[in-house]
């Protein structure tokens, strides 16, 4: 089991789309990133994309609307159910399962695989990160593209900077508290919910791998990827990679 699983099930999943800005805003953000890297299918009838850690489909749906046939993989059944409820004519196949289980991936070589929104940091160990990149590499056709994003944690937050208010409205307030060690980040999410008469607090914590850009680039290259470009946007780092063998 991963550290984040109980956290998502007991605290975060029910608020996920709301605290991250809503579905439409995230579709728009995803499209801007996909446009930034020029990610469009060459063959709209057969182009295959894999969304690794798809969640509620912030990238899966925009990819499908661009013409990809999308396989969306995630461990959280509630988030995948939300994805499915928002589908219209888009071609998205959901798969509830472990990203490190190769049997969850399509047999045909994909044109594109993505692993977004800090999913990489949610694994337990560096060895699991290596395994994830190996599976991504193996799931792509020769010349296929891999796009990943993560939050570089080179600078440890200290003192009051460790408290990060990230969402509030009339009935929900969300704050994150982070604690850095050399290899991990302890994340505590605190939610205050208003039911019409009183506020209720729900706090939950999990561990993330502390990700360093240079280290992650090295792991990608060891896995066989060529890192073609790097992009930094609002605290998130994006690596665009290709499989060339």
Largest sheet strand order: 3-2-1-4-5-11-10
Quick check: average pLDDT?
96
Helix content, binned percent:
25-40%
CATH topology group of the largest domain:
Rossmann fold
The CATH H-level superfamily of the largest domain is Vaccinia Virus protein VP39
H/E topology pattern = HHHEHEHEEHEEEEEHEE
The CATH architecture assignment of the largest domain turns out to be 3-Layer(aba) Sandwich
Can you describe this structure?
There is one protein chain. The chain has two domains: 4-153 and 212-243, Rossmann fold (3-Layer(aba) Sandwich); 159-209, S-adenosyl-L-methionine-dependent methyltransferases (N-terminal domain of TfIIb, Single Sheet), CATH 2.20.25. It contains seven helices and eleven strands. The chain has helices at 4-12, 16-19, 23-36, 60-65, 77-85, 126-139, 213-222, and strands at 48-52, 69-74, 92-96, 110-115, 140-150, 163-168, 172-180, 184-194, 199-209, 225-233, 236-243.
